[in-house]
Amino acid sequence: MTTITYCKGLPTPEEEMNALGCTTFEMFLDAFAPIFHKATCETANHLLSVKEFDKSKWNTYLQNTYGISKRHANGVISHAKGAVESAKECRINHLKILVGKLKSIEKWVKKEETKLKNAKKFYKKKNWLHSKTGCNFPISSSLQYRNTNWQHLRFQLHNKKRHLHHLKKQIEHLKTAPIRVRVPRHQVFIVGSSDESYGNQVCQGDGNAIKFRVPGCLEPQFGAYVQTTIGNFDRGINRLPATGAKTWHFYYKDGKWCVAVQFTPSPINPVSRHSSYGCIGIDMNPGSIGWAYVDSDGNLKAHGQIPLQMGLPKGKQNAQIIDACLQLAQLAITNACPVVCEELDFSKKKDELRERGRKYARMLSGWAYSQFYNLLGSILSNRGIYLMTVSPAYTSLIGLVKYARQYGLASDEAAAIAVGRRGMRLTEKLPSAITAYLEVYSKKHVWHWWSQLNNLIKKSGKISSRHSYYSITVSNWESIVKPPAEVTKTGSKRKR
Q1: What residues contact residue 458 under an 8 Å CB cut-off, 6+ apart?
Q2: Residues facing residue 226 across a β-bridge
Q3: Dist CA 134 CA 220 (whole Å)
Q4: Phi, psi of 274 (to 5 degrees)
Q5: How many other C-beta atoms lie within 10 A of the C-beta of residue 395?
Q6: CB of 46 within 8 A of CB of 54?
Q7: Are strands 288-295 and 278-284 parallel, antiparallel or unpaired?
Q8: Is residue 474 classed as helix, strand or coil in its secondary structure?
Q9: Which of 337, 454, 468, 496 is the most exposed, having the fewest neighbouring CB atoms within 10 Å of its CB?
Q10: Three-state SS across 148-217?
Q11: Are strands 256-263 and 4-9 parallel, antiparallel or unpaired?
Q12: Residues whose CB is less than 8 angstroms from the CB of residue 79 and which lie 6 or more positions away in sequence, other chains included
């Protein structure tokens, strides 16, 4: 079940402060954190060294060794397990990224070596000057750098192969290297339980004050309990329930102790209706988010753009993304409909950044796609709005071909219409101006014909940018879509 975490800085009431300027609760956390850290490190090392972990025996060992109770030991074990699982997952993801880069470089090297080999083979022919096809990679020289494009390509291949060798050695090392787990200091973690009062036996909060059961090793110094006033977690939509398990996490950050509580949120009344009554489709691009509201008949009712500024620092970028998510949430609340987005995966494209150039790498790296949709899902679910994901196949092409010129929309707004209609399970047939020149069979899936159209547009060479779609009328689709004819030597015509 989904959980939510609320965080805040630990308050320091003036009446609780001592001569050192700290509260008794902060002094207790300063004393308990080193014990907790040492126990967590030993637990993490034990988890990495054994194949089968006996939680009961290890819990007893922690109690006897560090003088803590069973509930404190449960928090240590859970914290150590989380750190170990995170380290293992990071190692798997790291290997996955390196393997993807390795395959991308191998593919590029093979392609460029074939291109250079074919070019050499072409120039070895005696009559290459009279060739009708020409060379796929003609040799040329640069007056500025005083070398040829062949020499430049050989230099690139040399560097790529060096990087390829380095990646192979790095992958071999990571597959056998032991996993190292980082356990941060100044942490206290207490696991909650639903059958305990206030959701936790050791750390109990009533909405204003918090009461912590002191472990046995620190009772002579602090007594049986320490407590402090923390107040409530100020939220516009507070979903912290009065009952249910609550896991508490105390951590030291920026010179101050902070507190976080993790819980299963109380249910919220749904705001969005079924997708058949209408949807808001969104299409995210590096510079803007296009949205379009489609009614129950699949027709456009409202549209707009939310501008996004690129290259901002992390804090400003997060604030910009949150503001965009709140605008989309307000639109969904106004229309009482779900939000539909594309389910994209850029992992493969990010593996090819070194082969695609600096400009492409800068654009894709600065595109906080996953962060945007994580925040959007959290904000929408907190307001009772359903977030749907659909396949991104040909949504941009559908928007440009069918809706951009019809409604006079930007490319992202037109794609948002296709996304919203797909969330409503509506089909996107090709316009009649195109099907008149294509052999369309009803047994084929509609995406097959959009794929064919996409290939024909790329081969035509008459559409160089997205702006070209706005100038295409019904009459000139024939010159783009209809397969061109070429005249043979005998005078007959054949289709390419």
Answers
A1: none
A2: 212
A3: 90
A4: -65, 150
A5: 24
A6: no
A7: antiparallel
A8: coil
A9: 496
A10: EHHHHHHHHHHHHHHHHHHHHHHHHHHHHCCCCCCCCCCEEEECCCCCCHHHCCCEEECCCEEEEECCHH
A11: antiparallel
A12: 36, 40, 183, 187, 189
For residues 400 and 406, give the distance between their C-alpha atoms in angstroms, rounded to a whole number.
Answer: 9
Query: Which two three-digit tokens encode residue 424?
Result: 């409503």
Dist. CA 273–CA 281, nearest whole Å? 15
Q: How far apart are the first and last CA of the chain?
A: 57
Contact call for residues 338 and 272 (beta carbons, < 8 A): yes
Find the mean pLDDT for residues 356-384.
80
* CA atoms lying within 13 Å on the CB side of residue 357: 3
Report helix, strand or coil for 301: strand
Residue 207 and residue 238: Cα distance in Å, rounded? 12
Render pLDDT for 313-326 as a digit per residue (tens, 0 to 9): 888 888 999 999 99
Task: Provide CB contacts within 8 A for 323, sequence distance 6+.
Answer: none
pLDDT band, residue 276 (cuts 50/70/90)? very high
What is the number of residues in the chain? 496
Amino acid at 62: L
Burial state string for 117-136 with b = 16 or more CB within 10 A and e = fewer than 16: eebeebeeeeeeeeeeeeee
**What separation in angstroms does the CA of 458 have from each of 132, 149, 261, 371, 463?**
23, 27, 54, 32, 8
Ordered by where they begin, the domains of the chain are 1-126+133-266 (no CATH), 275-428 (3.30.420.140), 429-496 (no CATH)
**Residue, of 449 and 57, whose pLDDT is higher:** 57
What whole-number distance in Å separates Cα of residue 6 and Cα of residue 258? 11
Model pTM score: 0.81
- Rounded CA separation 226/219 (Å): 10
